[in-house]
Amino acid sequence: MDPLDLVKLTSLMERTSGSSDVKIGLIDGPVVTGHPDLAGGYLSEIPGRSGATCTKTDSTACVHGTFIAGIFCAKRNSSAPAICPGCTLLVRPIFSEKSAGREQMPSATPQELAAAIIDCIDAGARIINLSLALAQPSTKGEHALDEALDHSVRRGVIVAAAAGNQGTLGSSAITRHPWVIPVVGCDLRGRPITESNLGSSIGRRGLSAPGDEITSLGAEGQALTLGGTSVAVPFVTAAIALLWSEFPAASAAQIKLAIVQASTPRRAAVVPPLLDAEAAYRTLARANATGE
């Protein structure tokens, strides 16, 4: 099955490619903004500790950032999912380009992540995508991160985050926050992939999305296939972006409720339900028709 069909994104993508008024904060590695399949898209750079454009196309940071950007805003006829190319992507780099390799999930300290979240909110992001893990956890750092996530609640900015790739039961300072939508990676049959973290808070508030053998843009021009929870997050984030493009008057709480609860009834489980973009669209359409 096509990963877009699995989470019922295809019909929503036929309705819209997204609105440029809907801004997505991509906290990740730098992006090859001159990639031919990204050229002409709505990409904007938020300066971080390093530039938002790649200087080393073989670095883990550049590979990862470009791959995730392709899921969002590659051209619709490219090899990437290209879910919401009409939306504005705010690239806020957080990973350095020091190391080469193909790690599937770079990490950032809680303080670095907190600063990046605030930068994205200040730049007008409506949704923030966290395809990353936490490094060097500390009480002080996690307090700063909690405050940044609390700020996103007050500003009505939705945050979707990777559940993690350790294959364990548990949560992190990111996925424990009640406002965050944790995302588990699944295969094309909807079953959790082996490396995906699971847990009660993830099962209660999260979603599952395609995270196995996903093809998107490579930093050096070629198509690239990767897996993991970091790959699954943008399917959820992009679905939210398309829903907000179709229902611009909806509040963050309405959008979040529709996408998290539209799929199947919640039950006590460590595995969250599969994203169902079409059900979320119908939920918002009904609310819009009745003026709820």
Q: Any key phrases for this structure?
A:
292 residues; 35% helix; alpha/beta
Written account of the structure:
This protein is of the alpha/beta class. The protein has one domain (3-290): Rossmann fold. Helix content is 35%, strand content 16%. The protein has nine helices and eleven strands. It has a seven-stranded parallel beta sheet with strand order 2-3-1-5-7-8-9, with helices on both faces. Strands 4-6 form a two-stranded parallel ribbon. Strands 10-11 form a two-stranded antiparallel sheet. Strand 10 and strand 11 (223-226) form a beta hairpin. Helix 4 (110-122) packs parallel to helix 5, helix 7 (229-246) packs parallel to helix 9 (277-290) and helix 8 crosses helix 9 (277-290). It is globular, with a radius of gyration of 17 Å. It starts with a helix and ends with a helix.
